[in-house]
Description:
CATH architecture: 3-Layer(aba) Sandwich
Strand order of the largest sheet: 2-1-3-4-5
CATH class: Alpha Beta
Bound molecules: flavin mononucleotide
Mean pLDDT: 96
Low-confidence stretches: none
Shape: globular
Strand content: 15-25%
Amino acid sequence: MNVLVTYWSQTGNTRKIAEAIFRSLVCDKTLKPFSEVETLDEFDLIFIGFPIMQFGPPPAARKFISRAEDKNVALFITHATVSNSSDPIQQAMLAKELDKCKAICFHTKLLGMYNCQGELSEKISDELNNSGIPMLMAFAAMRPSTLGHPNPEEIKLAAGFATTIMKGF
Ligand SMILES: Cc1cc2nc3c(=O)[nH]c(=O)nc-3n(C[C@H](O)[C@H](O)[C@H](O)COP(=O)(O)O)c2cc1C
């Protein structure tokens, strides 16, 4: 069994989850950002991670996943939206964003998805605030609720997710 853990991460949140998944694996394994992955041919299973951006998967994720035709794939995703929010609007927004991530895997064998919150960095928050775009400015306002994520519990859950995927494989 040869497993690739690959990710795209601007501010390090998704990379932390990638590293936790990688550490949990007991098999032949490789950890690389998307940009360093030359071929997928040798891998039996690929964990693919990215942040949600502008309400869906970023172009880098779409591009990478387009290469994974018929591959066994498991996704890990970070986002600013509170997971398990009691606010139905936030819940619906996150569900829609995750559905879009799932949809881009239509040509793969998608085995599962993990998601958790990721801290919105101060720099990014300032950029979103200065964008003048109301929806992006609304994200900037979410920063306080994102601080410290992914937290140790979310990192542990990500490792557990990978273990479950491996058991079922
Ligand atoms: C330009 C931009 C757009 C974003 N859009 C969303 C979004 O639509 N929904 C969301 O929940 N989070 C959004 N985020 C927050 C990121 O998904 C979150 O901070 C993520 O953990 C960043 O991951 P990274 O550190 O691996 O880059 C956005 C972040 C940026 C920079």
